[in-house]
Design goal:
This protein is an alpha/beta fold and 363 residues long. The chain contains ten helices and 14 strands. A seven-stranded mixed beta sheet has the order 2-10-9-8-5-3-4, with helices on both faces. Strands 11-12-14 form a three-stranded antiparallel beta sheet. Strands 1-13 form a two-stranded parallel sheet. The chain starts with 5 loop residues before the first strand and ends with a helix. Bound molecules: pyridoxal-5'-phosphate (PLP). The site of pyridoxal-5'-phosphate has 13 residues, from α3. InterPro entries: Aminotrans_V_dom, Pser_aminoTfrase, PyrdxlP-dep_Trfase, PyrdxlP-dep_Trfase_major, PyrdxlP-dep_Trfase_small.
Length: 363
């Protein structure tokens, strides 16, 4: 047996141990082929089966039909910040953004780099240090798209509704809450997520794109690799993908389907973990101060402050001594952050709550 600590890091993050075991076997030898998954050609039929199955599973879990395409790209969610306006912003048709935190800001910046006047921030929660999800925004019906960040990894807020955008395509960065709950995924024209938070190891980025968005890229003169159409036409095998990362994502998708029993159960499990942790924060609110407004609280990243920074430091280091690691908040906001993605075990949250009680009593 290997030693497993409770890993609260925001990403790369904890993965199901059964997936790690399966992957490690196949690192030694992949499916009795006499070579490792690390050595396989991306053109081999055995890998083709892996990526096709992963694409199929994403669609199945999201309830999407053949008008959607599933891609595994490189460059992280950060490259998507630029690829989206590059491919999908039309001239004179503004690209709309809702600013809910650091990652939204980066997406906005990349759009502004392409066309400042055509990039419009239609709502923002920056007035209250990104502690909530704005409810109202003005929708320009002529817009190219509206972009949102469904879960704000750093500030610990999450959309609990899907903005109504009529005919304006809705685009979402779901890097930190992808496949963590049931959603009407058909409401989105494009969904993207770096794999390293909720879906697998670092190295690949999931992009789910609808036909009408692909059409928009058809006549664009863009670098080949930056055009969505290139990847859709070649079913995500235009060039060498991150073979190992895609393989592990495939195992995680299988885990969601077979071991967890689908998204409904994943959501139940995530709610149970988040409820336990938020209840603890609320019950000890004289000591732990939640930073997100209650109706915007994230099920994935739970953030709070302690009475002072000295205590926050002490909390993080004493927790680590109990094998509860990665609890330091993002350097831009401070405080404590517990990332409890799909694969994070309930027992780890129980351990954290016990430690929180003890720490409050002793300090
Ligand atoms: C982590 C994160 C990103 C950045 O992803 P990279 O793959 O490192 O580029 C973008 N958006 C959100 C919401 C994130 O949590």
């Amino acid at each position: 047996m290997v030693k497993r600590v409770y890993n609260f890091f925001a990403g790369p993050a904890t993965l199901p141990f059964s997936v790690i075991e399966e992957a490690s076997k196949n690192v030694l030898e992949f499916e009795n082929l006499g070579f490792s998954i690390l050595e396989i050609s991306h053109r081999a039929k055995e890998f083709d089966n892996v990526i096709k199955q992963a694409q199929k599973d994403v669609k199945e879990l999201m309830g999407l039909g053949d008008d959607y395409h599933v891609l595994f790209l490189q460059g992280g969610a950060s490259l998507q910040f630029h690829m989206i306006p590059l491919n999908l912003m039309g001239s004179g048709k503004p690209a709309l953004y809702i600013n809910t935190g650091a990652w939204s800001k980066k997406a906005i910046k990349e759009s502004q780099l392409l066309n400042k006047e055509n990039t419009k921030v239609v709502a923002s929660s920056e007035d209250k240090n990104f502690s909530y999800i704005p409810k109202d925004f003005t929708l320009d019906k002529n817009a190219s798209y509206l972009h949102i960040t469904t879960n704000n990894t750093i500030f610990g807020t999450e959309y609990h509704y899907i903005p109504e955008t009529g005919d304006v395509p809705l685009i979402a960065d779901m890097s930190s809450d992808i496949l963590s709950r049931k959603l009407d995924f058909k409401k989105f024209a494009l969904i993207y997520a770096g794999a390293q938070k909720n879906l697998g190891p670092a190295g690949t980025t999931l992009v789910v794109i609808r036909d009408d968005m692909v059409k928009r890229c058809e006549n664009k003169t863009l670098p080949t690799l930056l055009n969505y159409k290139t990847h859709v036409d070649k079913e995500s095998l235009f060039n060498t993908p991150s073979v190992f990362a895609v393989y592990v994502v495939h195992l995680v998708l299988k885990w969601i389907k077979e071991e967890m029993g689908g998204l409904e159960n994943v959501e139940k499990y995530n709610r149970k973990k988040a409820d336990l942790l938020y209840s603890a924060i609320d019950e000890m609110s004289d000591f732990y101060r939640g930073t997100a407004e209650k109706d915007s609280r994230s099920l994935m990243n739970v953030t709070c402050r302690l009475p002072n920074e000295e205590l926050e430091k002490k909390f993080v280091s004493e927790a680590a001594e109990r094998d509860l690691i990665g609890l330091k908040g993002h350097r831009s906001v401070g405080g404590i952050r517990a990332s409890i993605y799909n694969a994070f075990p309930y027992e780890g949250v129980e351990k954290l709550v016990d430690f929180m009680k003890e720490f409050r009593k002793n300090n």
